[in-house]
Design brief:
The structure holds 2 protein chains of 2 kinds.
Chain A: H1 3-54, H2 65-70, H3 103-125, H4 129-141, H5 145-158, H6 163-175, H7 179-193, H8 196-207
Helix pairs in contact in A: 3-4, 4-5, 4-6, 5-6, 6-7, 6-8, 7-8
Chain B: H1 3-12, H2 26-39, E1 45-49, H3 56-66, E2 71-74, H4 81-92, H5 98-105, E3 110-114, H6 122-133, E4 137-143, H7 155-158, E5 161-166, H8 172-185, H9 189-193, H10 197-207, H11 211-231, H12 243-252
Parallel strand pairs in B: 1-4, 1-5, 2-3, 3-4
Helix pairs in contact in B: 1-11, 2-3, 8-10, 10-11, 11-12
The chains are: A mainly alpha, B alpha/beta.
Chain lengths: 211, 257
């Protein structure tokens, strides 16, 4: 074989090796790039989370008791004389036109009031989170927002991680026009618990979509 | 691409010192100008340095050819001082006592150029120093490098050295011009037009602009192409010098593994 024929074969081998090297480098490069890309975004996500956690929390609303003192002005409730009536757990529908209720609605309201009185009495005898929540819920449905705040805080005293107590509190505060307080309370709870429901509510309040 | 064209191309890159195939580009034009300006100055010894294969011999040959009378080039090194003395007598037309007759006969100083001066021993260089001291003979010595170990770096020589011209490798652009013009000089016109920046860069990466190395590369390249043109013409693209052949050349010369 002529030396240049042999050289040609050598060159073919050289090209093949070069191709393999390039393919390998390219593969490593692509894999490295992909890994780097993933790591980069992972890091960014962590940084965002850390930044979020490290962000100083202003206007912290101390749950439970402190609210009670500050919101004393909302509290108008005076317990009624003891009425012996069976406690019934009813689903209370929100009053559609609270300012001018129809006769039937008035009747309903009265009965609800009576139910609530019973519930409150029961609570006074045997306080519990569930009872406090039930009362807060009833007050909210009756659009009695100061009482909702009072009872949601009572419920919160039993369990400050209870989602519904925070939500009821925020909703009532919002309805009373204290938007900032409502949002701040939700922010604190979202940071603490990450509750989706609270997030959604917070968002709707931010956007002004909450009615 | 004809076989005859490739033959001419090969011929263009045969390593020879022939002023007819001297290619001018910016840097060697400057070196030539510096050498010519030396002729108008009074000095004893001037040096031309540069790595082997950089084109010193070719430059000196061109310089001698461009110069008028009174410039003598000894391109082959002398291994014996006596041999040099005899040659010098012959050149200068001196018959007996060299130094006396040089002092008497030479009115206008002559210039002697000695190539490959790095091989000369102390006795030889001492003779040259004495010769230069007559002020009738100006010496241009060409050597690879002037490091501290070189005899010429010794103090008694240093004081007599007027200037040192250091040749550096050409730029890529200059090498491209060199390749094109060299092929053109040898009438390989088609191939000359195929020399481009890419090809020059490829060659330059291996030869670093060294002309001896470049000539060797180009000769081998055209030799390989000639073989395939005669035996496997299908793998030859007549419109370009394919990278395949450049790589084969680099492989054959050991630049690539």
């Amino acid at each position: 074989m002529n030396s240049y024929e042999a050289l040609y074969l050598r060159w073919k081998k050289y090209r093949f090796k070069k191709f393999l090297k390039t393919a390998l480098l390219l593969g490593v490069g692509v894999a490295g790039g992909f890994w780097g890309y993933k790591e980069f975004f992972k890091k960014e996500e962590i940084v965002q989370k850390v930044e979020h956690l490290n962000r100083p929390i202003t206007n912290i609303i101390t749950p439970s008791l402190s609210f009670e003192n500050r919101l004393a002005r909302y509290l108008h409730y005076k317990p009624k004389p003891k009425v012996h009536k069976k406690v019934t757990k009813k689903k209370v529908k929100p009053a559609s036109t609270p300012l001018q209720p129809s006769p039937s609605q008035l009747l309903e309201l009265e009965s609800k009031q009576e139910d609530l009185t019973t519930l409150i009495e029961k609570f006074n005898i045997a306080p519990s989170k569930e009872l406090a929540l039930l009362i807060a819920r009833e007050f909210y449905s009756q659009q009695n927002y100061p009482q909702t705040i009072k009872w949601s805080m009572k419920a919160n005293e039993f369990d400050n991680k209870d989602e519904e107590s925070w939500i009821l509190f925020s909703k009532a505060a919002y309805k009373l026009g204290d938007k900032r307080k409502a949002i701040n309370a939700l922010k604190v709870f979202v940071q603490k618990s990450g509750s989706l429901k609270a997030k959604e509510l917070l968002l709707s309040m931010y956007k002004g979509e909450f009615k | 691409m004809l076989s005859s064209e490739l033959k001419k191309a090969k011929e263009a890159f045969v390593d020879r010192v022939d002023p007819n195939s001297f290619v001018k580009f910016e840097s060697n034009i400057q070196y030539l100008e510096k050498l010519h300006s030396l002729l108008e100055k009074e000095f004893k010894i001037a040096l031309l340095t540069g790595e082997p294969g950089i084109g010193k011999s070719m430059l000196l040959k061109q310089f001698q050819q461009e110069s008028k009378e009174g410039v003598y080039l000894f391109d082959k090194p002398f291994f014996d001082l006596e041999e040099f003395k005899e040659k010098l007598k012959e050149v200068l037309g001196v018959k007996k006592n060299l130094f006396e007759e040089v002092e008497e006969k030479i009115s206008t100083p002559i210039t002697l150029i000695l190539d490959e001066a790095q091989i000369y021993k102390e006795e030889f260089l001492e003779f040259l120093r004495v010769l230069a001291d007559t002020t009738k003979v100006k010496l241009i010595l060409s050597l690879h490098s002037l490091n501290d170990e070189t005899l010429l770096a010794k103090e008694h020589f240093k004081s007599r050295i007027f200037t040192t011209i250091t040749m550096k490798p050409p730029s890529k652009k200059e090498l491209e011009i060199y390749l094109q013009k060299r092929l053109f000089l040898f009438q390989a016109y088609d191939l000359s037009s195929l020399i481009d920046k890419k090809l020059t860069s490829f060659v330059y990466n291996f030869t670093k602009g060294n002309f001896r190395e470049t000539n060797r590369f180009m000769y081998k390249l055209f030799d390989i192409m000639e073989y395939f043109e005669q035996n496997k013409p299908t793998i030859l693209n007549p419109k370009k010098i394919s990278k395949k052949f450049l790589e084969m050349t680099a492989l054959d010369l050991g630049y690539l593994k």
